């Protein structure tokens, strides 16, 4: 088994605590509302959203994928950071064992930057190339932009969210 690591950064004018609340803490409620054409539901099948919880995302019939499961490995809301792993689902295919993510939102002048590190754990001797994960990276950027646009259009949503970032 090999591990391939990729880093991404996204910037926004939205405060880090609001982005973290929307993208991480409340994604199970927000994402199906913002992307009803893609996401049928997101539910906790173990736990309540804290460390060790498992969240299942179910996609609509006819979608390229049926479902996926994420496990929350670490959660520091006060620092706007989270670690989680994609542990199950047809999105992994026959070449990936799992994908682990480290996400941190940091303050910038007038907004925030999201720093994401993805660790792709491959099966056997398979070597992952950047073009193999381009679609997933593009989808992550698309989701990020949808959340950003929603928060910019709705400045009172998650305005109570606070963090030390």
Automatic annotation (TrEMBL):
<dbReference type="GO" id="GO:0005737">
    <property type="term" value="C:cytoplasm"/>
</dbReference>
<dbReference type="GO" id="GO:0009738">
    <property type="term" value="P:abscisic acid-activated signaling pathway"/>
</dbReference>
<dbReference type="GO" id="GO:0005634">
    <property type="term" value="C:nucleus"/>
</dbReference>
<keyword id="KW-0568">Pathogenesis-related protein</keyword>
<dbReference type="GO" id="GO:0010427">
    <property type="term" value="F:abscisic acid binding"/>
</dbReference>
<dbReference type="GO" id="GO:0004864">
    <property type="term" value="F:protein phosphatase inhibitor activity"/>
</dbReference>
<dbReference type="Pfam" id="PF00407">
    <property type="entry name" value="Bet_v_1"/>
</dbReference>
<dbReference type="InterPro" id="IPR024949">
    <property type="entry name" value="Bet_v_I_allergen"/>
</dbReference>
<dbReference type="InterPro" id="IPR050279">
    <property type="entry name" value="Plant_def-hormone_signal"/>
</dbReference>
<protein>
    <recommendedName>
        <fullName>Bet v I/Major latex protein domain-containing protein</fullName>
    </recommendedName>
</protein>
<dbReference type="InterPro" id="IPR023393">
    <property type="entry name" value="START-like_dom_sf"/>
</dbReference>
<feature type="domain" description="Bet v I/Major latex protein">
    <location>
        <begin position="5"/>
        <end position="154"/>
    </location>
</feature>
<comment type="similarity">
    <text>Belongs to the BetVI family.</text>
</comment>
<keyword id="KW-0611">Plant defense</keyword>
<dbReference type="GO" id="GO:0038023">
    <property type="term" value="F:signaling receptor activity"/>
</dbReference>
<dbReference type="GO" id="GO:0006952">
    <property type="term" value="P:defense response"/>
</dbReference>
<dbReference type="InterPro" id="IPR000916">
    <property type="entry name" value="Bet_v_I/MLP"/>
</dbReference>
């Amino acid at each position: 088994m090999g591990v391939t690591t990729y880093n991404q950064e996204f910037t926004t004018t939205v405060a880090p605590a609001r982005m973290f609340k929307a993208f991480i803490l409340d994604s199970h409620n927000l994402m199906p509302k913002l992307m009803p054409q893609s996401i049928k539901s997101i539910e906790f099948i173990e736990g309540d959203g804290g460390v060790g919880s498992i969240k299942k995302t179910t996609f609509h019939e006819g979608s390229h994928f049926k479902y996926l499961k994420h496990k929350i490995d670490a959660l520091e809301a006060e620092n706007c950071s989270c670690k989680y792993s994609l542990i199950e689902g047809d999105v992994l295919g026959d070449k990936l064992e799992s994908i682990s993510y480290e996400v941190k939102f940091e303050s910038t002048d007038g907004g925030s930057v999201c720093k994401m590190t993805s660790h792709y754990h491959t099966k056997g001797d398979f070597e992952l190339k950047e073009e193999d994960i381009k679609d997933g990276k593009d989808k992550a950027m698309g989701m990020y932009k949808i959340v950003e646009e929603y928060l910019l259009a709705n400045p009172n949503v998650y305005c109570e969210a606070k963090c030390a970032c």
